[in-house]
Amino acid sequence: MSRAKDIIEKRREHAKAQSASFSSRGPGRGGAGGRVKLNADTVPILKRLFAYLGRGYVSMFAAAAVCMAVQAFLEVRVTLFIRTLIDDYIAPILLMDEPVFDGLKRALIFTGCMALGIAVLQFVHALLMRSISQGVIRNIRNDLFSKLQTLPIRYFDTHPYGDIMSRFTNDVDSMRQVLSQSIPQVLASLVTIVSVFAAMISLSPLLTGLVLVFVAISYFLAIFIGGKSAMFFRQRQSALGEMNSFIEEMMNGQKVVKVFCHEEEAGEEFAILNSELREKTTNANIYGSIIGPVMGNIGNLQYVIVAIAGGYMAINGIAGLTLGEIAAFLTLSRSFNRPVSQISQQINSVVMALAGAGRVFALMDEMPEADEGSVTLVSAEEKDGELSECEERTGVWAWKKADGSLVRLRGDVRFNDVDFSYVPEKQILYDINLYAKPGQKIAFVGSTGAGKTTITNLLNRFYDIQDGQILYDGIDVKDIKKDDLRRSLGIVLQDVNLFTGTIADNIRYGRPEATDEEVVAAAKLANAHSFIEKLPEGYDTVISGTGSQLSQGQCQLLSIARCAVADPPVMILDEATSSVDTRTEVLIQNAMDGIMGGRTTLVIAHRLSTVQNANAIMVLENGRIIERGDHDDLLAQKGRYYQLYTGNKAAQ
Fold first, then answer.
1. How many whole angstroms separate alpha carbon 33 and alpha carbon 494?
2. What is the pTM of this model?
3. Do residues 41 and 35 touch, judged by C-beta distance below 8 A?
4. Pairing mode, if any, of strands 600-604 and 570-574?
5. Residue range 222-235: average pLDDT?
6. DSSP track, 476-506
7. Are residues 301 and 450 in the same domain?
8. Nearest 5 degrees, angle CA 550-CA 554-CA 558?
9. In DSSP terms, which residues pair with 502 in a beta bridge?
10. For residues 436 and 442, what is the distance between their CA atoms, to the nearest angstrom?
11. C-beta of residue 477 within 8 angstroms of C-beta of residue 461
12. What is the pLDDT of residue 108?
């Protein structure tokens, strides 16, 4: 168990370091943690939450508020009617020799009608607030997901996916509960408090002052207990996100867990995380649960003392209180204490929602991926040697500069003196100089961690360089809009990401307007058509996001077809054949050769047999290009490439 604790602690230290590294590069105001302080962050968070009401729900909320106000007025009116009932009807009847109940009957019917009106208003108010809460939560989820799409790759590299998912599920759900239940309850209680307070003042200012003493005691107790509850609810939300991350990690790596018989160790780690979650949830619930009974008992004590004080005042003729007024005031004091108690009981829900909202808004406040580019990618046609922009897809592409001039997209890629580091203290690439002329195939080889994939990440601008320059057709990539830059690049990765849907949908993912004929043509080009035809429903076969129904090689062929249908001018192949058998490798290699024709291609290779026909091969080691040349040149040098090639051949 101690080893499991050590692993968890190391994981936490790494997560903190990663988060701190990302935060130092300019996260938003909320920070990664989303912490909530009752004295500082509560009001801004509530303002942001209520701001969503302004997006189409103002009239509904106003109607709900009117219902609450009328309901509170009727409740006070019913309570005050007790005085009339006792002093004007019941007391006189007791003194009659022959009681007449007509007036009392009318009074009771009137009270019943008001009670029915209160019930109808409660129903309408609850219905409106639930509709509002569901709509607001829908908008929050939409904004959260939209924000997620704008974040840089660095964010996802430094934050566990399970924790991000927890913000969409647990944190948003806590906000839903507080919008549909807690906040309506609090608002209704506040309206009731104001109206009841006014009624109590009209009956007896002295007794009202006595009630306010107990309200002050309740307030300070609620602040103290609520602060403790807030602290533990923040810890609970964080622990829940950590446990979700662990579960996701274990589910993704379940095959590895079983192969290495790591079930027991994984169970121990989960048990620790689960116990911590239980402990923090228990502490949060303890403070959240005791606040109700504490407030309730203070209310009971208040009722007794007010009853004694009111009786004493009535007996001694102080302030001229009647029996009906005392009965009405006692009922009002109970009505006054009840909403105060209800507000205190909702504190734990509000605190949990604030903790969740803090984490949600913290993600929304993260700095989006910066894009200062102005150059766009447009379809073009050439007449008499002149390029002009056109709407239809011609197969000719051009870069459109801010001044309106066009530069033909040829696929000329150059790195000039490029330095790069993911974190300041550890440089990854040093003084990288390379060029790929239009239509050339450039390969990158080297040991794991040498910086091969990093180079392609920089061309995509998933990360920005610290020094040097990357030119694309003579244009600095920083001047090109990121969407247009990435649209011009086709990528086939080692780890294939498919999406739940049909085979055809996955192929046309990068170009949704592609016709069925174009999808089939791309599949044929990628050597995927033959196996797709054998599937139960062909191109309409639905696959899961994991692609579990297909082999790894088939998934890779689909990703190549996806790239082919997008028809990008420049291709990036990142170890696309490293995890498949030799026969499948040949299939994939033929497919890649089919779509590389006439395109500038950057290839990251593990198997050197796939890059022997490259125009130039760059050998990287520790972030530096140590050798360059074609296959024969590098073999003749008998340097690092020669070692890699002969070792690779021996391994095969």
1. 33
2. 0.67
3. yes
4. parallel
5. 75
6. EGGGB-HHHHHHTEEEE-SS----SEEHHHH
7. no
8. 110
9. 542
10. 6
11. yes
12. 78
State whether residue 537 is helix, strand or coil: coil
Q: What is the rounded CA–CA span in Å between residue 291 and residue 218? A: 10
Q: Is 437 helix (H, G, I), strand (E, B) or coil?
A: coil
Q: Identify any residues that bridge with 150 across adjacent strands, giving them in sequence order.
A: none
The secondary element (H helix, E strand) that includes residue 444 is: strand 441-446
**Burial class of residue 601 in the structure, from the number of CB atoms within 10 Å of its CB (0-12 exposed, 13-18 middle, 19+ buried):** buried
- Locus of tokens 């040829």: 410
426-436 and 616-621 beta bridge pairing: unpaired
| Dist CA 121 CA 191 (whole Å) | 14
Compute the mean pLDDT over every residue in the chain, rounded to the nearest whole number. 79
SS (H, E, C) 176-232: HHHHHHHHHHHHHHHHHHHHHHHHHHHHCHHHHHHHHHHHHHHHHHHHHHHHHHHHH
Please give the DSSP secondary-structure letter assigned to residue 480. B
pLDDT score at 43: 79
pLDDT at 162: 74
Summarised one tens digit per residue, pLDDT across range 160-169 is: 777 788 888 8
Please give the radius of gyration of the chain, using alpha carbons only, rounded to the nearest integer.
Answer: 35
- Same domain, residue pair 307 and 339: yes
- Encoded tokens for 196: 């009841």
Instruction: For the beta carbon of residue 373, count every other beta carbon within 10 angstroms.
Output: 19
H/E stretch holding 315: helix 263-315
* 201, HSE (Cβ side, Cα atoms, 13 Å): 7
The two beta strands, 441-446 and 600-604, are parallel
Q: Which domain holds residue 508?
A: 413-651
Residue 350 and residue 288 share a domain: yes
Could you tell me if residue 625 is left (phi over 0), alpha (psi between -120 and 50 degrees) or otherwise beta? beta
pLDDT recorded at residue 567:
81
Residues 314 and 455 in one domain: no
What confidence tens digit (pLDDT) does each residue in 303-337 have?
Answer: 788 788 877 777 776 766 767 777 777 777 777 76
Model confidence pLDDT, tens digit, residues 333-364? 777 767 766 676 666 677 777 878 888 888 89
For the chain, the first-to-last Cα distance in angstroms comes to: 42
Taking only the tens place, the pLDDT of each residue in 383-432 is 877 888 888 888 788 999 988 899 999 889 999 999 999 887 788 899 99
Q: Which helix (H) or strand (E) holds 311?
A: helix 263-315
Q: Where does residue 358 rank: exposed (0-12), middle (13-18), buried (19+ CB within 10 A)? A: buried
Where is the domain boundary, 332, 364, 396?
Answer: 364
Q: Are residues 445 and 544 in the same domain?
A: yes
| 438 and 381 within one domain | no
Strand segments, DSSP code E, in 341-436 are: 376-383, 386-389, 396-400, 406-408, 413-423, 426-436
Residues in the chain: 652
CA distance 270 to 4: 9
Strand, coil or helix: what is 515? coil
Task: Say how many C-beta atoms besides its own lie within 10 A of residue 625's C-beta.
Answer: 21
d(CA 422, CA 442): 24
Question: Which pLDDT value is given to residue 33?
Answer: 43
pLDDT in tens, 140-189: 989 999 898 888 888 888 887 777 888 888 888 888 877 777 777 777 77
How many structural domains is the chain composed of?
3
CATH of the domain at 344: 1.20.1560.10
